[in-house]
Specification:
Layout (H helix, E strand, L loop, with lengths): L1 H11 L12 E2 L4 E8 L3 E7 L3 E4 L3 E7 L8 H11 L6 E7 L11 E12 L2 E13 L4 E10 L9 E2 L2 E2 L3 E11 L1
Antiparallel strand pairs: 1-12, 2-3, 2-12, 4-5, 5-6, 6-7, 7-8, 8-9, 9-12, 10-11
Length: 179
């Protein structure tokens, strides 16, 4: 019966992971970058390499601690962390049902959009995030880009010296997973 199911899945072109009992875990380096624009078109870019993945078999949660976000300018970092209230809300996370994830076969890629909950600044919002995953036989390489609406998460837009950061922040995330 299992072989018939595997053949049916292969014929239908659906990519799934048959290692349902194996938890996903972060493997190797990760990069989280953000891109914001302030008044006058000023570009603000920042990043962190801190990212964790927890998989309880039902929900996969990707968490990014905010304390190490940097724009490579200490005063700007201070204002950003004050606006995010990092002392009160030390991380942001995205939680998705594992059954909503698609896993590519070895040597292949899959692009999928998944519904989940983005929790930022103590506010959880339902969002859909599109990702691409590639499997090399040992790990899944995952990339995603999405936009965060700061106002939807009750974040007061940072202001300093006549500059105000725009409401939308673009986020790019790259990380690897293994089962």
């Amino acid at each position: 019966m299992r072989n018939a199911f595997i053949a049916l899945v292969a014929l239908s072109g659906v990519s799934v992971s048959f290692a349902a009992d194996a938890a996903l875990a972060k493997s190797g380096d990760s990069t989280v970058t953000f891109h914001a624009t302030a008044t006058g078109g000023m570009k603000i870019d920042g990043s962190t390499s801190d990212l964790t993945v927890k998989d309880d078999g039902k929900v996969v949660r990707i968490t990014v601690p905010l304390a190490n976000l940097t724009t490579k300018m200490s005063l700007r970092d201070k204002h950003m962390k004050e606006a995010l209230e990092v002392d009160k809300f030390p991380s942001t996370s995205f939680a998705v049902l594992r059954t909503d994830l698609k896993f590519p076969e070895k040597g292949k890629s899959v692009t999928n959009e998944v519904p989940g909950t983005l929790n930022l600044h103590g506010v959880g919002k339902s969002v859909k995030i599109k990702y691409t995953a590639t499997y090399d036989g040992a790990k899944y390489s995952v990339t995603t880009s999405f936009t965060v609406d700061m106002g939807a998460h009750d974040i007061t837009k940072p202001k300093y010296a006549g500059l105000t950061v725009g409401n939308d922040v673009n986020v790019d995330v790259t990380f690897a997973l293994k089962e």
